[in-house]
Amino acid sequence: MGLSLDIRDFKEIIKNPKQIVIGLISQMILLPLIAFGIANISGLSPELKVGIMIIAACPGGAVSNLITYWLKGSVPLCISLTTVNSFLILITMPAIVYFSLYFFTGDAGIISTPVTSMIIKIFFMILIPVGIGMYARYKNKPGAQKLELYMKYLTTLLLAVVYSFVIFEKKDGEMTKLSEYMEIAPWVFAMNVLGMAAGFLMGRWNGLNIKKQITLSVEVGIQNSALAITIAGSEAFLGNHEMALPAVVYGAFTFFNAVIFGIIIKKINPGKST
Question: Span 239-264, mean pLDDT?
């Protein structure tokens, strides 16, 4: 992510803060509210409900940026939203996780990592690597671009490994059953689709052009499932395999959903320039 960022990308925030505000409201307020409503009516276990909320608390990521590029959306807007949200989750992630644990399990104490410690770990896991990547691009842009091509394949492989560990990890001595994934699928699918719809409608109602409507749809609809898996399943954070399952299922189909959704928007909505 850092290797793809340039200081000039942040000019988009300064020139037109309205679109950033619309995107952040959609991603950081509307999406968690959608996730909360879905979790409430889902009938899933408290741990799975918390897992759904963790997804909604995450920012977008490289996948949303890539899809935005493929759909000819506004890549600077997408990158700006991802970057700003990556800073803001230092506050919003612990808050949403603690609220979810307290509301759905009745005991936020099951999380062993204090808020301060969680903030520090997110800082080192996201912001430091991004900063290093941006600095590398600043010092040697051609080299960073070349390295980025290899890193895309490496991160894809690493993501596959993470998914494999969560999917095949034993729980109480047994492998996670397919029926458990199928139980979760409709709810995270609904969150994905409603999130994309919320981003699209917020862009349309506020007069943004078609490129930015697509961007908001993708950025709000696709959250960083790898981060959600890490927060839920890693012993450094919650260390709960069940809470990580919604992110695993979510990550399995959101890529394709977003591409299809973006194509449909382009077909049925000519949009307006701003």
Answer: 83
